[in-house]
Every structure is written in C-alpha cells, then in structure tokens.
Amino acid sequence: MKNKNLKALLVIIVAVVIAALVAWAGAQPYITLRGWPLLAVCAALAFAIQWVAFVPAFLLQTEKFYDLAGSATYLLLLAFVARFGPPRAWADVLLLAMCGLWALRLGLFLFLRIHKDGADARFTQIKPSFFRFLVSWTLQGLWVFLTLLPVLMVVISMKWHATTAWTLIGAAIWALGFSIEVLADWQKRQFRADPANAGRFIQSGLWAKSRHPNYVGEIVLWVGVFIICVPMLSGWQWVGVLSPLFVTLLLTKVSGVPLLEASADKRWGQDPAYIAYKNATPVLWPVGGKANARASA
Questions:
Q1: Which entry of 1, 153, 199, 256 is 20 to 30 Å from 282 by CA?
Q2: What's the rounded Cα separation, in Å, for the pair 222 and 148?
C-alpha cells in the first residue's frame, strides 16, 4: 500500500475511534435501540451515510453532492433522534428546529454554488485515490456527529429539558450567528453575480469587518446551540463542548480559513488593494483592527 494511502487509512481509523470514544464517554442514561445506546447508533449512522454516498461519488469521480450529503446527514440524524428519542420538551423541539433549518439552508446554498461555479479545487488531486477521497467523506461523518453531539445527547436523554434563561440566551446567540452567516453568504453571492466584479475580491458589507464573516456566523450559532444544552450536561456529558470547539478548530485551522487565505494570497497576493484590505481587516473576529489582521495573517 502506498504511503499516502496508508496515512489515509489511518486517518479513517482514528476518526472512527474518536467517534466511538466520544459516544462511549457521553453514554449516560439514554434511550436505547435494540440494546444499543442511541448515541452510538447516531455515530454509526453518521459514518454509514457518508460511506454509502462515497461509492457513487468515487465511481463518477465527482464531489458535486459532497456538501449536500453532509447536510442530509444532519437532517437524517435529527429525524432519527426525533423518531426514536422523541423530544419531550419545548427546548428540545427548538434545538431540532434550529439545527434542521441551518443544515437545510447551508446544504442547498453549497449545492447550488458548486453546480454553478464548477468543481471544488479541494478535491481535484484526491478524487482519483480511493482512500484519500474516502477520508474526506469519513471526516464529514465525524464533523456531523461531533457538531450535533450536545443536541443528540440532550434530545435522547431521559432527563426533562426545562426552558430556562440558558434557552433564551442560547437561542438569541444562535439567531445572531445564523443571521450573520446568511447575510455574509448573500452579500458574496450578490457581489459575484455582478459582471463588473469579475476577478475582484469582496470587501464590502460584512466582508469589510471580517475576511470570513460567514465563518464568524457559523461559530457563533453553534456556541448558541451549546449554551441551550448546558443545563442538561453533567459528568462525561460535558464532552458535548467538543461541538463549538471542533467547529472553531475545523474552520480556523483545517478546511476553512487556511485554504481560503492561501487561495486568496495566490490570486491577489500582489494586488496593492488586496494587501491593504488584508492588513486593515481582521481575518475572522471583527475586533482588534490592524493588529488582529496582521496577527492572524
């Protein structure tokens, strides 16, 4: 086996082990399905759905429904826990609705974007490799499971989820993050739709405050979701904090900001206007001004 394929296989194994350990750590008094903790079943489903979707993707050598498969996995897991661990409190219903709305909106947005803009450069080199391409789908399964972790634990818990100040605060934070993400995506889509902006970079609207305001919104909304879940967590269930931490790590250190920053530098790195924009605009959080921008570059 080639070295790259071996590394890819190890990544897949590590991802599955992480999900298994997290499911075990969070296995408190939950509803079971044929003797299996429902949380563990959710973890298995997250990977299974991705691996099934991977097969036609690899055979057709396409990534066009990768993002759609990710969103579909969110929706299917939410539907699954709603069916076998029916929410008993208004706060549970709110969590399922918020996560479902986010997944549906983002999935459709990314699906339409890739069909309009063409191939995703992230997959160009890895698609021909079975194991390396499979890594992307496996990590997406891990992403879905860890991101939804506190929601899954709360909804399938045997404890009553009372509506408290945590619920209202978390819902408000989620609404703020969701609004930021939707507005940032809309502004960028409108900018690109104008032929006069062909080959240019966006630096207006929310993009004048942050180089990646859509990621700001996504991080904020998952913090809001976690806050709603806080009163229900105890003991090892605090592993649910991995949700906002994982989202933040993924977007700022792995597949989000680093890839887009590298792509922008390659495309506009010699453009004085882009250099000025980069020096004056924070990479993520719209605080700290020029110092934040330089420190994050």
A1: 199
A2: 9
